[in-house]
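Give me structure tokens for this 92-residue protein.
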Amino acid sequence: MFPMVGKVRIFADDRKKFGLWLPLFLFWPVLIILMLALFPLVILIRLIKLLLRRDCKIHKAGPMFLYLAWHMRGLMIDVKSKSGDNVYINFR
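Here you go.
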């Protein structure tokens, strides 16, 4: 399943400074429409590359993006600075 919500929390000196919920499910329809709009361009580039006998892997970009997005669910990113600030990013 695609991640539906992203959560960003910023801590300064072990106190919560800022928290933000990102509704990622609102971006998926826009990305799908964008991918469908660019599909004819990708096919055209692929045909030109085939006619020129050059290797082209642009046609794999769409499926690879979906594969990457599908496996982001559960990803947690924890960044700590030397000054004591922490940033947590969690995809659910």
